[in-house]
Amino acid sequence: MAPNMSKFAQNNKTLVGAAAVSMLLLLLRRSRKQSGPGKPGTQEVQYLVGENPGRKETAHVDREFFRQLKQLLRISIPGVFCPETGYLLLVAASLVARSLCDLWMIQNGTLIESAVIGMDRTLFWKRLFKFFAAMPVISMVNNVLKYGIGALKLRLRIRLTQNLYDQYLCGFTYYKMSNLDTRIANADQLLTTDVEKFCDSVTDLYSNVLKPLLDILIYVYRLTANIGAQTPFLMILYLLASGVFLTHLRRPTGRMTMKEQKLEGEFRHINSRLIANAEEVAFYQGNRREKLTLLASFQKL
């Protein structure tokens, strides 16, 4: 009786083990079907770095965008009598001077061509000498413009970085962001690379919008004085319509750019986390797991 009971118990253990193995295989098959086919020789690694799957972020040039931009500019440009305002005026004056130089070069180039067509050698050399004499002035205007743009970028970054670090290192904010609250992840990426890119983008936007607006005003004024206001009105209407249409087409690009920057921050955060916890990873021999996590983050990027 005892041998029979032991055989029955062994058979039951075998059946239970086989059932457990079959259930595990079934779960693995279902998980593979849900996750989709992967590349051969790779292992799917899922990770979560400050991610909120229930929140769908969007990036549009709308009222919310201008409200946030206004708040950041209040920090970067605190008042009227500050160095940042002076650099803004310097860039604006340089852009006006650049437009005047462009107009003079177009006019002088036309006069040189007319002298060539008229075969007037004396007038040709005279106007050509004026062109070469104006080159140092035009070069100085271009370099003053570059200096103003670079200095403005630097001043905006200094103001914004100081304000952010005042808040980040106030009390235990840095600890709460890293360990207790995951709504703001990748603080190193936000405080360094993103701040620099924001200041560069704002300065480039200011310089790239101001000069075309001035050129459009001058162009419309001359067209209106020569042929009337109907043609400039139709051209401006066409520019506005095409601008609205192109802005609508660029919306997916804005979302993709925001997602790209977020994934860049995650990849950098995982690398810095490995450096900070290198001793623990070495003690537990977690190099393979960290490698899979890094490669998964890079593949996602």
TrEMBL record:
<dbReference type="GO" id="GO:0005324">
    <property type="term" value="F:long-chain fatty acid transmembrane transporter activity"/>
</dbReference>
<dbReference type="InterPro" id="IPR050835">
    <property type="entry name" value="ABC_transporter_sub-D"/>
</dbReference>
<dbReference type="GO" id="GO:0007031">
    <property type="term" value="P:peroxisome organization"/>
</dbReference>
<protein>
    <recommendedName>
        <fullName>ABC transmembrane type-1 domain-containing protein</fullName>
    </recommendedName>
</protein>
<dbReference type="GO" id="GO:0015910">
    <property type="term" value="P:long-chain fatty acid import into peroxisome"/>
</dbReference>
<dbReference type="GO" id="GO:0005524">
    <property type="term" value="F:ATP binding"/>
</dbReference>
<dbReference type="Pfam" id="PF06472">
    <property type="entry name" value="ABC_membrane_2"/>
</dbReference>
<dbReference type="InterPro" id="IPR011527">
    <property type="entry name" value="ABC1_TM_dom"/>
</dbReference>
<keyword id="KW-0472">Membrane</keyword>
<keyword id="KW-1133">Transmembrane helix</keyword>
<dbReference type="InterPro" id="IPR036640">
    <property type="entry name" value="ABC1_TM_sf"/>
</dbReference>
<feature type="domain" description="ABC transmembrane type-1">
    <location>
        <begin position="109"/>
        <end position="301"/>
    </location>
</feature>
<feature type="transmembrane region" description="Helical">
    <location>
        <begin position="232"/>
        <end position="249"/>
    </location>
</feature>
<dbReference type="GO" id="GO:0006635">
    <property type="term" value="P:fatty acid beta-oxidation"/>
</dbReference>
<dbReference type="GO" id="GO:0005778">
    <property type="term" value="C:peroxisomal membrane"/>
</dbReference>
<keyword id="KW-0813">Transport</keyword>
<dbReference type="GO" id="GO:0042760">
    <property type="term" value="P:very long-chain fatty acid catabolic process"/>
</dbReference>
<keyword id="KW-0812">Transmembrane</keyword>
<dbReference type="GO" id="GO:0140359">
    <property type="term" value="F:ABC-type transporter activity"/>
</dbReference>
